[in-house]
Amino acid sequence: MAMAGAVCVYGYRGSPPSRRRRYGAPRRGSLSDQASGGEARVRCVPGHVISMDADGRNGATIRPVRCTVKRVRRSLGAAVLAFACAAVLLAQQQAAEAPAADRRVQTRPAVTGLHGLVAAGHPIASSAGLQMLLKGGNAFDAAVAVGAAAALGEPEMNGIGGNGFMTIFEKKTGKVLSLAMAGAAPRALKPAEMTPETLNAGMKAGIVPGNLGGYLSLLERYGTMSVADVFAPAIEIAEKGYPIDPMLAQSIDRGKNNLVRYPTTARIFLPGGQPLKSGDLLKNPDYAATLRKMVEAEQQAKSRKASRAAAIQAAFDRFYKGDIAQEFDRFFRENGGILTAADLAAYEPHWSEPVHTAYRGYDVYSNPSTSRGGLEVLMQANLVEGFDLKAFGAGSPKALHAMIEAIKVAKADIYRYVADPKFTIIPTSGMLAKSYAATRRNLIDMTKAGPYPEPGAPAGSTTSAGQQQADGRAFPDKYDADQHTTSFSIVDGQGNAVGVTPTLGGLFGNNVVVGSTGLLLNNGMRLGSTSPYPDNVNYVGAGKTPILNNSPVVVLKDGTLAFVFGSPGGETIGQTEFQMLVSLIDFELPVQEAIESPRFALNASPNFYKPGAEITVSIENRVAAGTIAALRTLGHKLNVQIGWGSIGHMQTIRVDLKTGAMTAGGDPRRTGYAMGY
User: Fold this and answer.
1) CA–CA separation, 145 vs 130, rounded Å?
2) What is the reported pTM?
3) Sign of the C-alpha dihedral, residues 230, 236, 241, 246?
4) Contact between residue 211 and residue 163 where contact means Cβ atoms under 8 Å apart
5) pLDDT of residue 88
């Protein structure tokens, strides 16, 4: 029974399961979907609940609204309070598309420095990187420390057992390079025996861990510190524990029904059978032991007078060819899995030239396949280069329309041609040619929204490109691509830079902690990372590396570092990075303002593999109401998200081309945090 003077406070945070992301902690009076397919609930003090349909406005946060009912008689309290809360909810929904009075007000300051900056998805990860810089390490040393610690701050998003991509700039040589940290599907995989469920989670869902090997390769090639140095912060955190934030607590609670199925996983995240709550200590002593084994291998090699490179290789070999790999083999063999020690032994991180385009006097670099995101960012930039976005204005209907249409055109080619290059020929040069962009730009009609187009025919493509004959059956072509990733950017005082986007794929990856290693794996074979169609070149296959969208970006101006940035977000990664590129170059926004600017992202039904798919644009309601109305007039189908939405989680660093001073920003949409000195 509600008492007199009760207060109903709510803030919308929910989303339908098909677009789930990570949100802030449940609050007294919060409105959330409660995993109910989009049903909105208002909790009224001291506990009455009313429910209303959320009308598809998902993944957002708004400022709390208070409705106070004074002197309510006990006999009428519940009814009056429910009515009052319902009225406020209805009014708030009707006003959902009204932006904040001043959308340029920033939630946090930018961080500046001259000696080094780290912008990561979680404070403990940023702290680990900063510790390396303060001890004299460079950006590459810091990146490995961040990667090891990020597995603890955001364990549902990433880890050394996951996969990812890295883009680096080495000041000494002036070169930009790409590093693929992407493992392949097990060689024992039989696609015909898989289902959407077994591709997504469980003993058969995990792929070869790539991030650990990538981090060690970076450390050996460009770092200055030891494995012991860079793993020290993560080892301490894993052993002593740290109080988890509300976001991680919510993720654990949301995933508990899957996590509890696997004792090795439940032991970490549901000790005693109950999910960890905000403020509880998360410990992972098995993860610390795995890191210590690699430190031990390095130290033993050094005791034999091995070189620094050989000592780091010893740590790599212990993981991929030694007793850690054997623990993988034992665990999956005994529990019905298919990943083997031989799969791990075959893995090597892959260094390559990045993909590149020139955009309005800047050189933009990102990752080639098996990332689709790098090609997507560059193709989108090439397409909008033919429009004067600056004259259109930041956040204007014309600018957003041109960008939305460019994303459609780029994705049509990306989903036709991009897959594991071991299994297909990707017409990369043709797709990135300015002449090809000029031809494809003709598909963009500035007076109306166009359909999702057929792919084009870039130079180097063939009639069979994008097609294959696979031993498997078609999977449902409409699927929920759960997307959980992080990203971090680092610049040191010498001018070196690195952007890294590691991922577990879905929420907690394959959900299975591997034996005594403390590691979760990327569920990269899930639909979304792979195609549901057997005749598509990105259909799941034994030994094939699934596609990631991960694609951190490095931007140079006349050979000098200007920006490094990256974002998680699965399907939205390339779109979010594209918007950041335009915000920084076309609109010349300061870093933090660019990060906090309202975003949009395209979704396709049934999926982006299908020309003619229905396109919906999720857009934050902090975009001006007039702009939203104008986009609808142009024919865009919009899904307006209240407040901050759930689109990406950008970490960006800008280097002043005149002074060399650095400015970093963190994204308030999650727990992004920048540190430096």
Assistant:
1) 9
2) 0.84
3) negative
4) yes
5) 36
